[in-house]
Amino acid sequence: MTPAELASVVLAAAHAVFLQRGLDSAALPERTVVERPRNPEHGDYASTLALQLSKKVGVPPRELAAALADELGRAPGVKSVEIAGPGFLNIRLDAAAAGQLARVIVEAGAEYGRSDRLAGEKINLEFVSANPTGPVHIGGVRWAAVGDALSRLLRATGADVGTEYYFNDAGSQIDRFARSLLAAAKGESAPEDGYGGAYIAEIATEVQARRPEVLTLDDDAAQEIFRVEGVALMFDEIRSSLHDFGVEFDTYFNEKDLHDRGELDLALNRLRGQGHLYESEGATWLRTTDFGDDKDRVLRKSNGEWTYFAADCAYYLDKRERGFERVVIMLGADHHGYIGRMKAMAACFGDDPERNLEILIGQLVNLLRDGAPQRMSKRAGTVVTLEDLVDAIGVDASRYALARYSSDSPIDIDVELWTRATRDNPVYYVQYVAARTAGVARNAAEVGLVPGDADAFRPELLDHEKENELLKALAEFPAVVATAAELREPHRVARYLEENVAASYHRFYDNCRVLPLGDEEVTDLHRARLWLNNATRTVIANGLHLLGVSAPERM
Question: Which residues of the chain have pLDDT under 50?
Protein backbone atom coordinates (compact mmCIF):
# COMPACT_ATOMS: atom_id res chain seq x y z
CA MET A 1 0.00 0.00 0.00
CA THR A 2 1.42 3.38 -1.01
CA PRO A 3 1.09 6.47 1.23
CA ALA A 4 -1.38 7.90 -1.30
CA GLU A 5 -3.48 4.74 -1.12
CA LEU A 6 -3.40 4.78 2.69
CA ALA A 7 -4.39 8.47 2.66
CA SER A 8 -7.42 7.53 0.55
CA VAL A 9 -8.29 4.79 3.06
CA VAL A 10 -8.06 7.33 5.91
CA LEU A 11 -10.33 9.72 4.03
CA ALA A 12 -12.82 6.93 3.29
CA ALA A 13 -12.89 6.11 7.01
CA ALA A 14 -13.60 9.78 7.76
CA HIS A 15 -16.50 9.75 5.28
CA ALA A 16 -17.94 6.69 7.05
CA VAL A 17 -17.61 8.31 10.48
CA PHE A 18 -19.27 11.53 9.28
CA LEU A 19 -22.14 9.52 7.82
CA GLN A 20 -22.60 7.55 11.03
CA ARG A 21 -22.63 10.69 13.17
CA GLY A 22 -24.63 12.88 10.83
CA LEU A 23 -21.79 15.35 10.43
CA ASP A 24 -21.51 17.73 7.48
CA SER A 25 -19.36 15.99 4.86
CA ALA A 26 -18.60 19.38 3.26
CA ALA A 27 -16.03 19.83 6.02
CA LEU A 28 -13.99 16.93 4.65
CA PRO A 29 -11.03 17.80 2.43
CA GLU A 30 -10.78 16.47 -1.11
CA ARG A 31 -7.60 14.69 -0.12
CA THR A 32 -5.41 14.20 2.90
CA VAL A 33 -1.87 13.00 3.55
CA VAL A 34 -0.18 10.53 5.84
CA GLU A 35 3.38 10.98 7.01
CA ARG A 36 6.09 8.84 8.51
CA PRO A 37 6.41 9.52 12.25
CA ARG A 38 9.85 10.62 13.41
CA ASN A 39 9.99 7.71 15.84
CA PRO A 40 9.45 4.36 14.02
CA GLU A 41 8.10 2.89 17.28
CA HIS A 42 5.02 5.10 16.84
CA GLY A 43 3.97 3.18 13.75
CA ASP A 44 4.40 3.10 10.00
CA TYR A 45 2.40 6.26 9.26
CA ALA A 46 0.66 9.09 11.10
CA SER A 47 -2.37 11.25 10.28
CA THR A 48 -3.50 14.58 11.76
CA LEU A 49 -6.93 14.48 10.09
CA ALA A 50 -8.84 14.39 13.39
CA LEU A 51 -7.04 17.51 14.57
CA GLN A 52 -7.74 19.28 11.28
CA LEU A 53 -11.48 18.50 11.36
CA SER A 54 -12.24 18.88 15.05
CA LYS A 55 -13.04 22.61 15.13
CA LYS A 56 -14.93 22.50 11.85
CA VAL A 57 -17.44 19.93 13.13
CA GLY A 58 -17.40 20.75 16.84
CA VAL A 59 -16.18 17.35 18.02
CA PRO A 60 -13.25 17.05 20.48
CA PRO A 61 -10.17 15.87 18.57
CA ARG A 62 -9.54 12.73 20.65
CA GLU A 63 -13.19 11.72 20.38
CA LEU A 64 -13.07 12.18 16.61
CA ALA A 65 -9.72 10.36 16.48
CA ALA A 66 -11.21 7.41 18.40
CA ALA A 67 -14.06 7.11 15.91
CA LEU A 68 -11.63 7.32 12.98
CA ALA A 69 -9.34 4.74 14.57
CA ASP A 70 -12.22 2.33 15.08
CA GLU A 71 -13.34 2.65 11.46
CA LEU A 72 -9.83 2.63 10.04
CA GLY A 73 -8.85 -0.44 12.05
CA ARG A 74 -11.35 -2.48 10.03
CA ALA A 75 -9.85 -1.47 6.69
CA PRO A 76 -7.98 -4.18 4.74
CA GLY A 77 -4.21 -3.90 5.16
CA VAL A 78 -4.37 -1.89 8.39
CA LYS A 79 -2.90 -3.85 11.27
CA SER A 80 -3.57 -1.36 14.07
CA VAL A 81 -4.35 2.27 14.84
CA GLU A 82 -3.35 4.07 18.02
CA ILE A 83 -4.35 7.53 19.26
CA ALA A 84 -1.51 9.71 20.52
CA GLY A 85 -1.36 13.12 22.13
CA PRO A 86 -4.28 15.46 21.38
CA GLY A 87 -5.57 13.33 18.51
CA PHE A 88 -2.80 11.99 16.28
CA LEU A 89 -3.49 8.69 14.53
CA ASN A 90 -0.52 6.29 14.45
CA ILE A 91 -1.13 3.61 11.85
CA ARG A 92 0.55 0.24 11.34
CA LEU A 93 0.11 -1.79 8.18
CA ASP A 94 0.18 -5.55 8.00
CA ALA A 95 3.14 -7.07 6.17
CA ALA A 96 1.12 -7.96 3.08
CA ALA A 97 -0.18 -4.42 2.62
CA ALA A 98 3.26 -2.92 3.21
CA GLY A 99 5.02 -5.40 0.95
CA GLN A 100 2.66 -4.82 -1.98
CA LEU A 101 4.50 -1.57 -2.56
CA ALA A 102 7.43 -3.50 -4.08
CA ARG A 103 5.11 -4.83 -6.80
CA VAL A 104 3.58 -1.38 -7.37
CA ILE A 105 7.01 0.18 -7.87
CA VAL A 106 8.39 -2.50 -10.19
CA GLU A 107 5.26 -2.49 -12.35
CA ALA A 108 5.22 1.33 -12.51
CA GLY A 109 8.87 1.43 -13.54
CA ALA A 110 9.96 4.88 -14.75
CA GLU A 111 6.51 6.26 -13.91
CA TYR A 112 6.90 5.65 -10.18
CA GLY A 113 7.28 8.99 -8.42
CA ARG A 114 5.49 10.98 -11.12
CA SER A 115 2.26 12.83 -10.34
CA ASP A 116 -0.11 15.51 -11.59
CA ARG A 117 0.49 17.78 -8.60
CA LEU A 118 1.42 20.75 -10.83
CA ALA A 119 -0.77 19.85 -13.80
CA GLY A 120 -2.09 22.92 -15.58
CA GLU A 121 0.86 25.15 -14.68
CA LYS A 122 2.75 26.59 -17.65
CA ILE A 123 6.23 27.59 -16.48
CA ASN A 124 9.10 29.28 -18.30
CA LEU A 125 12.35 28.27 -16.62
CA GLU A 126 15.39 30.35 -17.56
CA PHE A 127 18.79 29.34 -16.28
CA VAL A 128 22.53 29.66 -17.02
CA SER A 129 22.13 32.46 -19.64
CA ALA A 130 25.87 33.17 -19.46
CA ASN A 131 27.05 35.95 -21.78
CA PRO A 132 28.84 34.58 -24.87
CA THR A 133 32.04 36.38 -23.91
CA GLY A 134 33.76 33.35 -22.37
CA PRO A 135 33.34 29.74 -21.25
CA VAL A 136 30.64 28.87 -18.68
CA HIS A 137 32.15 29.49 -15.24
CA ILE A 138 31.53 27.29 -12.21
CA GLY A 139 28.70 29.49 -10.92
CA GLY A 140 26.85 29.05 -14.20
CA VAL A 141 27.53 25.33 -14.05
CA ARG A 142 25.67 25.22 -10.74
CA TRP A 143 22.60 26.62 -12.42
CA ALA A 144 23.03 24.18 -15.32
CA ALA A 145 22.83 21.25 -12.88
CA VAL A 146 20.13 22.69 -10.62
CA GLY A 147 18.05 24.19 -13.42
CA ASP A 148 18.04 21.02 -15.48
CA ALA A 149 17.14 18.95 -12.41
CA LEU A 150 14.36 21.38 -11.57
CA SER A 151 12.93 21.19 -15.08
CA ARG A 152 12.84 17.39 -14.76
CA LEU A 153 11.11 17.63 -11.38
CA LEU A 154 8.51 20.10 -12.62
CA ARG A 155 7.71 17.89 -15.61
CA ALA A 156 7.55 14.83 -13.36
CA THR A 157 4.82 16.56 -11.37
CA GLY A 158 2.75 17.49 -14.40
CA ALA A 159 3.82 21.05 -15.17
CA ASP A 160 4.16 22.28 -18.76
CA VAL A 161 7.75 23.56 -18.73
CA GLY A 162 9.73 25.48 -21.31
CA THR A 163 13.46 25.75 -20.57
CA GLU A 164 15.23 28.81 -21.91
CA TYR A 165 18.70 30.26 -22.32
CA TYR A 166 18.80 34.05 -22.76
CA PHE A 167 21.57 34.70 -25.23
CA ASN A 168 22.92 38.22 -24.68
CA ASP A 169 24.33 39.16 -28.08
CA ALA A 170 23.93 42.92 -27.73
CA GLY A 171 25.39 45.61 -25.52
CA SER A 172 28.70 46.91 -24.19
CA GLN A 173 30.02 43.53 -23.00
CA ILE A 174 29.80 42.15 -26.54
CA ASP A 175 31.60 45.26 -27.83
CA ARG A 176 34.42 44.68 -25.32
CA PHE A 177 34.58 41.03 -26.39
CA ALA A 178 34.91 42.03 -30.05
CA ARG A 179 37.64 44.56 -29.26
CA SER A 180 39.51 41.89 -27.29
CA LEU A 181 39.39 39.50 -30.26
CA LEU A 182 40.62 42.20 -32.64
CA ALA A 183 43.51 43.04 -30.29
CA ALA A 184 44.47 39.36 -30.02
CA ALA A 185 44.41 38.99 -33.81
CA LYS A 186 46.76 41.97 -34.10
CA GLY A 187 49.07 40.57 -31.44
CA GLU A 188 48.22 43.42 -29.07
CA SER A 189 47.36 43.33 -25.39
CA ALA A 190 43.70 43.09 -24.45
CA PRO A 191 41.93 46.43 -23.89
CA GLU A 192 41.88 47.60 -20.29
CA ASP A 193 38.19 46.72 -19.96
CA GLY A 194 38.45 43.66 -22.24
CA TYR A 195 38.74 39.91 -21.83
CA GLY A 196 41.88 37.85 -21.44
CA GLY A 197 42.69 34.17 -21.43
CA ALA A 198 43.88 31.68 -24.01
CA TYR A 199 40.35 31.19 -25.36
CA ILE A 200 40.37 34.75 -26.75
CA ALA A 201 43.42 34.00 -28.88
CA GLU A 202 41.89 30.68 -29.97
CA ILE A 203 38.66 32.32 -31.14
CA ALA A 204 40.52 35.19 -32.83
CA THR A 205 42.55 32.62 -34.80
CA GLU A 206 39.40 30.75 -35.80
CA VAL A 207 37.72 33.96 -36.99
CA GLN A 208 40.77 34.77 -39.10
CA ALA A 209 40.63 31.28 -40.61
CA ARG A 210 37.00 31.86 -41.55
CA ARG A 211 37.49 35.43 -42.71
CA PRO A 212 41.12 35.80 -43.92
CA GLU A 213 40.50 39.37 -45.08
CA VAL A 214 39.45 40.62 -41.66
CA LEU A 215 42.73 42.36 -40.76
CA THR A 216 42.83 44.18 -44.08
CA LEU A 217 39.69 46.10 -43.11
CA ASP A 218 39.45 49.24 -41.04
CA ASP A 219 39.04 48.69 -37.29
CA ASP A 220 35.29 49.33 -37.20
CA ALA A 221 34.57 46.83 -39.98
CA ALA A 222 37.01 44.30 -38.53
CA GLN A 223 35.52 44.65 -35.06
CA GLU A 224 32.04 43.97 -36.43
CA ILE A 225 33.27 40.76 -38.07
CA PHE A 226 34.94 39.68 -34.84
CA ARG A 227 31.74 40.49 -32.99
CA VAL A 228 29.46 38.42 -35.23
CA GLU A 229 31.82 35.53 -35.85
CA GLY A 230 33.31 35.52 -32.35
CA VAL A 231 29.95 35.49 -30.59
CA ALA A 232 28.77 32.64 -32.83
CA LEU A 233 31.91 30.60 -32.10
CA MET A 234 31.75 31.28 -28.38
CA PHE A 235 28.09 30.36 -28.15
CA ASP A 236 28.64 27.17 -30.17
CA GLU A 237 31.26 26.24 -27.60
CA ILE A 238 28.90 27.03 -24.72
CA ARG A 239 26.12 24.93 -26.23
CA SER A 240 28.53 22.07 -26.88
CA SER A 241 29.83 22.19 -23.29
CA LEU A 242 26.30 22.17 -21.88
CA HIS A 243 25.31 19.33 -24.21
CA ASP A 244 28.24 17.26 -22.97
CA PHE A 245 27.06 18.09 -19.44
CA GLY A 246 23.65 16.66 -20.29
CA VAL A 247 21.83 20.00 -20.48
CA GLU A 248 19.70 21.03 -23.46
CA PHE A 249 17.31 23.95 -23.73
CA ASP A 250 13.96 24.13 -25.50
CA THR A 251 14.67 27.73 -26.54
CA TYR A 252 17.81 29.79 -27.07
CA PHE A 253 16.54 33.36 -27.06
CA ASN A 254 18.63 36.13 -28.62
CA GLU A 255 18.52 39.54 -26.97
CA LYS A 256 19.25 41.08 -30.35
CA ASP A 257 15.89 39.77 -31.58
CA LEU A 258 14.12 41.94 -29.02
CA HIS A 259 15.74 45.00 -30.58
CA ASP A 260 15.27 43.90 -34.18
CA ARG A 261 11.57 43.07 -33.72
CA GLY A 262 10.79 46.31 -31.91
CA GLU A 263 9.83 44.55 -28.71
CA LEU A 264 11.47 47.16 -26.51
CA ASP A 265 9.15 49.79 -27.99
CA LEU A 266 6.23 47.42 -27.44
CA ALA A 267 7.14 47.00 -23.78
CA LEU A 268 7.60 50.75 -23.40
CA ASN A 269 4.16 51.42 -24.84
CA ARG A 270 2.57 48.77 -22.63
CA LEU A 271 4.13 50.32 -19.52
CA ARG A 272 3.10 53.79 -20.66
CA GLY A 273 -0.44 52.54 -21.06
CA GLN A 274 -0.31 51.26 -17.48
CA GLY A 275 0.62 54.77 -16.37
CA HIS A 276 4.01 53.97 -14.88
CA LEU A 277 6.38 55.89 -17.21
CA TYR A 278 7.62 59.44 -16.91
CA GLU A 279 10.21 61.64 -18.60
CA SER A 280 13.00 63.35 -16.70
CA GLU A 281 16.25 64.98 -17.90
CA GLY A 282 15.57 63.71 -21.41
CA ALA A 283 15.38 60.06 -20.28
CA THR A 284 12.41 57.68 -19.96
CA TRP A 285 11.91 56.25 -16.48
CA LEU A 286 9.82 53.42 -15.01
CA ARG A 287 8.32 54.31 -11.64
CA THR A 288 9.22 51.03 -9.90
CA THR A 289 9.27 52.70 -6.48
CA ASP A 290 5.46 52.49 -6.58
CA PHE A 291 5.92 48.76 -6.06
CA GLY A 292 8.69 48.63 -3.48
CA ASP A 293 11.86 49.15 -5.53
CA ASP A 294 14.53 51.29 -3.89
CA LYS A 295 14.67 53.68 -6.86
CA ASP A 296 13.04 54.27 -10.23
CA ARG A 297 14.72 52.73 -13.27
CA VAL A 298 15.80 54.28 -16.57
CA LEU A 299 14.54 52.46 -19.65
CA ARG A 300 15.85 54.82 -22.32
CA LYS A 301 18.74 57.19 -21.80
CA SER A 302 18.74 60.81 -22.86
CA ASN A 303 20.93 59.88 -25.87
CA GLY A 304 18.28 57.43 -27.08
CA GLU A 305 20.12 54.26 -26.04
CA TRP A 306 18.19 51.47 -24.37
CA THR A 307 19.27 50.23 -20.94
CA TYR A 308 19.74 46.57 -20.01
CA PHE A 309 16.66 46.88 -17.81
CA ALA A 310 14.57 47.87 -20.83
CA ALA A 311 15.58 44.60 -22.47
CA ASP A 312 14.67 42.77 -19.24
CA CYS A 313 11.20 44.32 -19.40
CA ALA A 314 10.74 43.39 -23.06
CA TYR A 315 11.98 39.85 -22.45
CA TYR A 316 9.62 39.33 -19.51
CA LEU A 317 6.69 40.61 -21.56
CA ASP A 318 7.68 38.32 -24.44
CA LYS A 319 7.55 35.29 -22.13
CA ARG A 320 4.15 36.25 -20.80
CA GLU A 321 2.84 36.88 -24.32
CA ARG A 322 3.97 33.35 -25.23
CA GLY A 323 1.51 32.04 -22.66
CA PHE A 324 3.76 31.29 -19.70
CA GLU A 325 1.82 31.96 -16.51
CA ARG A 326 4.87 31.73 -14.28
CA VAL A 327 8.31 33.04 -15.22
CA VAL A 328 11.11 31.50 -13.17
CA ILE A 329 14.58 33.02 -13.50
CA MET A 330 17.73 31.65 -11.91
CA LEU A 331 20.41 34.23 -11.16
CA GLY A 332 23.83 34.25 -9.56
CA ALA A 333 24.72 35.57 -6.11
CA ASP A 334 25.76 38.96 -7.51
CA HIS A 335 22.22 39.55 -8.83
CA HIS A 336 20.40 39.70 -5.52
CA GLY A 337 19.61 43.37 -6.13
CA TYR A 338 17.64 42.43 -9.24
CA ILE A 339 14.80 40.88 -7.25
CA GLY A 340 13.21 44.15 -6.14
CA ARG A 341 13.35 45.84 -9.54
CA MET A 342 12.15 42.74 -11.41
CA LYS A 343 9.21 42.18 -9.05
CA ALA A 344 8.29 45.87 -9.37
CA MET A 345 8.55 45.63 -13.16
CA ALA A 346 6.09 42.69 -13.20
CA ALA A 347 3.68 44.73 -11.10
CA CYS A 348 4.03 47.67 -13.51
CA PHE A 349 2.83 45.37 -16.29
CA GLY A 350 -0.25 44.61 -14.19
CA ASP A 351 0.91 41.15 -13.12
CA ASP A 352 0.97 39.65 -9.66
CA PRO A 353 4.73 39.50 -8.93
CA GLU A 354 4.23 36.73 -6.38
CA ARG A 355 2.31 34.58 -8.82
CA ASN A 356 3.78 35.41 -12.23
CA LEU A 357 7.48 35.96 -11.46
CA GLU A 358 9.84 33.88 -9.39
CA ILE A 359 13.54 34.63 -8.99
CA LEU A 360 15.96 32.10 -7.52
CA ILE A 361 19.41 33.16 -6.36
CA GLY A 362 22.33 30.75 -6.32
CA GLN A 363 25.34 31.17 -4.09
CA LEU A 364 29.01 30.77 -4.93
CA VAL A 365 30.85 27.54 -5.71
CA ASN A 366 34.50 26.82 -4.99
CA LEU A 367 36.54 23.96 -6.42
CA LEU A 368 39.05 22.77 -3.83
CA ARG A 369 42.33 21.01 -4.54
CA ASP A 370 44.42 19.90 -1.59
CA GLY A 371 42.10 21.92 0.63
CA ALA A 372 42.67 25.20 -1.20
CA PRO A 373 40.32 26.92 -3.68
CA GLN A 374 41.29 26.64 -7.34
CA ARG A 375 41.04 30.23 -8.53
CA MET A 376 41.68 30.20 -12.24
CA SER A 377 41.27 28.09 -15.32
CA LYS A 378 44.31 27.34 -17.43
CA ARG A 379 42.29 28.27 -20.50
CA ALA A 380 39.94 31.01 -19.33
CA GLY A 381 42.59 32.66 -17.20
CA THR A 382 40.16 34.27 -14.76
CA VAL A 383 37.59 31.74 -13.52
CA VAL A 384 37.07 28.00 -13.02
CA THR A 385 34.99 26.71 -15.92
CA LEU A 386 32.57 23.87 -16.61
CA GLU A 387 35.35 21.93 -18.33
CA ASP A 388 37.64 22.39 -15.31
CA LEU A 389 35.02 20.91 -13.00
CA VAL A 390 34.19 18.00 -15.30
CA ASP A 391 37.86 17.25 -15.91
CA ALA A 392 38.39 17.18 -12.15
CA ILE A 393 35.51 14.95 -10.98
CA GLY A 394 33.41 13.89 -14.02
CA VAL A 395 29.90 14.74 -15.21
CA ASP A 396 27.93 12.56 -12.77
CA ALA A 397 29.79 13.74 -9.70
CA SER A 398 29.62 17.35 -10.87
CA ARG A 399 25.87 17.28 -11.42
CA TYR A 400 25.21 15.45 -8.17
CA ALA A 401 27.51 17.68 -6.12
CA LEU A 402 25.93 20.87 -7.50
CA ALA A 403 22.34 19.65 -7.06
CA ARG A 404 22.94 18.12 -3.61
CA TYR A 405 22.90 21.41 -1.72
CA SER A 406 20.27 24.09 -1.33
CA SER A 407 21.00 26.69 -4.02
CA ASP A 408 21.10 29.48 -1.44
CA SER A 409 24.09 27.84 0.29
CA PRO A 410 27.72 28.27 -0.86
CA ILE A 411 29.43 25.02 -1.92
CA ASP A 412 33.01 23.82 -1.60
CA ILE A 413 33.60 20.90 -3.99
CA ASP A 414 36.58 18.90 -2.78
CA VAL A 415 38.18 17.11 -5.74
CA GLU A 416 39.67 14.41 -3.52
CA LEU A 417 36.31 13.59 -1.90
CA TRP A 418 34.25 13.54 -5.09
CA THR A 419 36.66 11.24 -6.95
CA ARG A 420 36.99 8.76 -4.09
CA ALA A 421 35.48 5.28 -4.59
CA THR A 422 34.28 5.06 -0.99
CA ARG A 423 31.02 5.49 0.88
CA ASP A 424 31.92 8.99 2.07
CA ASN A 425 31.63 10.14 -1.56
CA PRO A 426 27.86 10.85 -1.81
CA VAL A 427 27.45 10.10 -5.51
CA TYR A 428 29.46 6.88 -5.22
CA TYR A 429 27.37 5.87 -2.20
CA VAL A 430 24.11 6.20 -4.17
CA GLN A 431 25.39 4.85 -7.48
CA TYR A 432 26.84 1.85 -5.65
CA VAL A 433 23.30 0.88 -4.62
CA ALA A 434 22.18 1.23 -8.25
CA ALA A 435 25.00 -1.11 -9.30
CA ARG A 436 24.49 -3.51 -6.38
CA THR A 437 20.77 -3.93 -7.02
CA ALA A 438 21.49 -4.59 -10.70
CA GLY A 439 24.20 -7.08 -9.70
CA VAL A 440 21.84 -8.91 -7.35
CA ALA A 441 19.27 -9.23 -10.16
CA ARG A 442 21.95 -10.60 -12.54
CA ASN A 443 23.24 -13.09 -9.98
CA ALA A 444 19.71 -14.16 -9.14
CA ALA A 445 18.99 -14.96 -12.78
CA GLU A 446 22.16 -17.07 -12.95
CA VAL A 447 20.93 -19.34 -10.13
CA GLY A 448 17.39 -19.55 -11.47
CA LEU A 449 15.88 -17.02 -9.09
CA VAL A 450 13.39 -14.82 -10.93
CA PRO A 451 10.66 -12.61 -9.44
CA GLY A 452 7.88 -14.58 -11.10
CA ASP A 453 4.39 -13.37 -11.88
CA ALA A 454 2.91 -10.63 -9.75
CA ASP A 455 0.09 -12.99 -8.76
CA ALA A 456 2.64 -15.34 -7.21
CA PHE A 457 4.36 -12.56 -5.24
CA ARG A 458 4.06 -13.16 -1.48
CA PRO A 459 4.34 -9.66 0.04
CA GLU A 460 3.37 -10.88 3.50
CA LEU A 461 6.77 -12.59 3.72
CA LEU A 462 8.49 -9.20 3.82
CA ASP A 463 8.05 -8.88 7.58
CA HIS A 464 11.65 -8.33 8.67
CA GLU A 465 12.37 -5.02 10.41
CA LYS A 466 14.88 -3.99 7.73
CA GLU A 467 12.49 -4.92 4.93
CA ASN A 468 9.81 -2.76 6.49
CA GLU A 469 12.28 0.11 6.90
CA LEU A 470 13.27 -0.09 3.23
CA LEU A 471 9.65 -0.28 2.07
CA LYS A 472 8.77 2.85 4.03
CA ALA A 473 11.75 4.65 2.51
CA LEU A 474 10.68 3.69 -1.02
CA ALA A 475 7.11 4.77 -0.29
CA GLU A 476 8.27 8.34 0.36
CA PHE A 477 9.61 8.90 -3.16
CA PRO A 478 6.48 10.41 -4.80
CA ALA A 479 6.05 12.89 -1.94
CA VAL A 480 9.74 13.83 -2.06
CA VAL A 481 9.51 14.51 -5.80
CA ALA A 482 6.37 16.62 -5.43
CA THR A 483 7.82 18.64 -2.54
CA ALA A 484 11.15 19.19 -4.32
CA ALA A 485 9.28 20.48 -7.38
CA GLU A 486 6.94 22.77 -5.46
CA LEU A 487 9.74 24.26 -3.33
CA ARG A 488 12.22 24.38 -6.26
CA GLU A 489 14.69 22.29 -4.22
CA PRO A 490 16.26 19.40 -6.17
CA HIS A 491 18.65 18.79 -3.28
CA ARG A 492 15.77 17.10 -1.45
CA VAL A 493 15.91 14.26 -3.97
CA ALA A 494 19.66 13.79 -3.57
CA ARG A 495 19.49 13.77 0.23
CA TYR A 496 16.54 11.36 0.15
CA LEU A 497 18.44 8.95 -2.10
CA GLU A 498 21.43 9.01 0.25
CA GLU A 499 19.88 9.17 3.69
CA ASN A 500 16.73 7.14 3.14
CA VAL A 501 17.01 4.75 0.22
CA ALA A 502 20.73 3.97 0.05
CA ALA A 503 21.13 3.78 3.82
CA SER A 504 18.05 1.55 4.22
CA TYR A 505 19.07 -0.70 1.34
CA HIS A 506 22.53 -1.30 2.78
CA ARG A 507 20.95 -2.33 6.10
CA PHE A 508 18.46 -4.56 4.27
CA TYR A 509 21.24 -6.17 2.22
CA ASP A 510 23.33 -6.85 5.33
CA ASN A 511 20.44 -8.46 7.23
CA CYS A 512 18.17 -10.07 4.65
CA ARG A 513 19.77 -12.45 2.18
CA VAL A 514 18.23 -12.27 -1.29
CA LEU A 515 20.14 -15.07 -3.04
CA PRO A 516 20.00 -18.71 -1.92
CA LEU A 517 23.23 -20.13 -0.48
CA GLY A 518 24.92 -23.01 -2.27
CA ASP A 519 22.40 -25.72 -3.11
CA GLU A 520 19.70 -24.07 -1.02
CA GLU A 521 16.28 -24.29 -2.66
CA VAL A 522 14.78 -21.10 -4.06
CA THR A 523 11.85 -20.09 -1.88
CA ASP A 524 9.02 -17.57 -2.03
CA LEU A 525 10.95 -15.46 0.48
CA HIS A 526 13.89 -15.21 -1.93
CA ARG A 527 11.48 -14.15 -4.67
CA ALA A 528 9.78 -11.58 -2.46
CA ARG A 529 13.13 -10.08 -1.50
CA LEU A 530 14.12 -9.95 -5.17
CA TRP A 531 10.97 -7.88 -5.84
CA LEU A 532 12.08 -5.52 -3.08
CA ASN A 533 15.62 -5.39 -4.49
CA ASN A 534 14.27 -4.54 -7.93
CA ALA A 535 11.92 -1.92 -6.51
CA THR A 536 14.94 -0.26 -4.89
CA ARG A 537 16.74 -0.25 -8.22
CA THR A 538 13.72 1.47 -9.79
CA VAL A 539 13.58 4.23 -7.17
CA ILE A 540 17.34 4.85 -7.27
CA ALA A 541 17.32 5.01 -11.08
CA ASN A 542 14.27 7.30 -11.18
CA GLY A 543 15.74 9.60 -8.55
CA LEU A 544 19.13 9.84 -10.22
CA HIS A 545 17.44 10.50 -13.57
CA LEU A 546 15.71 13.52 -12.04
CA LEU A 547 19.15 14.84 -11.12
CA GLY A 548 20.57 14.06 -14.57
CA VAL A 549 22.90 11.43 -13.10
CA SER A 550 23.38 7.90 -14.42
CA ALA A 551 22.36 4.76 -12.54
CA PRO A 552 25.16 2.33 -13.48
CA GLU A 553 24.60 -1.41 -13.63
CA ARG A 554 28.23 -2.09 -12.78
CA MET A 555 30.92 -0.17 -10.92
Answer: none
